[in-house]
Amino acid sequence: MNNTSHITIDLQIATKQPVPTQAQFEQWVNAAIQVHLQDAEICIRLVDIPEITTLNETYRKKKGATNVLSFSYHDMPDETLLLGDIVICADVVIQEAKKQNISAESHFARMVIHGTLHLLGYDHDTDEKANIMENLEGKSLQKLDFPNPYA
Questions:
Q1: What distance in Å separates the CA atoms of residue 117 and residue 33, rounded to the nearest whole number?
Q2: What is residue 7's predicted lDDT score, i.e. its pLDDT?
Q3: What is the model's pLDDT at position 84?
């Protein structure tokens, strides 16, 4: 696996004991993530509007269809890291791509990257978190030669 992971660690030290450096923690977290992600498992389910609507209303308590939902399994002990499920509504993605005048392929790529970032623990429920997640999403898309929707 390549070293493109971007991990930010907020190291809070609440002890007077000597501890490793910030750089050491970052190095270890990066190593652990790369090792686990080599064996990670994600289920991607492509669905239509009725199924995504039911899932959105049941699990997010939001009415109507959405483009992508992620269901993380961070707490499940397993030898293979099961990150979770990504559910993508093909109808919504295609409609959004047409409205945004971009290729459906590009928009599907964005939904997969967006969903995967959620499974890795990223979120956009505050402006600060959204900026971090959008930055990672945009960089990932650019590496794949897709346009950065946030540029």
A1: 13
A2: 39
A3: 76
The low-confidence residues of the chain, meaning pLDDT below 70, are 1-22, 24-42, 74-83
d(CA 76, CA 51): 25
How far is the C-alpha of 145 from the C-alpha of 148, rounded, in Å? 9
DSSP letter, residue 125: S
How far is Cα 49 from Cα 55, in angstroms, rounded to an integer? 10
- Burial annotation 119-144 (CB, 10 A radius, 16+ → b, else e): bbebebeeeeeeebbbebbbebbeee
Q: If DSSP codes are grouped into helix, strand and coil, which group holds residue 131?
A: helix
Intra-chain end-to-end CA distance of the chain, in Å: 27
Give backbone dihedrals phi and psi of 129, rounded to 5 degrees, phi first. -65, -40
Other C-beta atoms closer than 10 Å to the C-beta of 110 total 26
Beta strand pairing call for 68-72 and 82-89? antiparallel
User: Full-prediction pTM beyond 0.85?
Assistant: no
The residues facing 43 across adjacent strands are 85
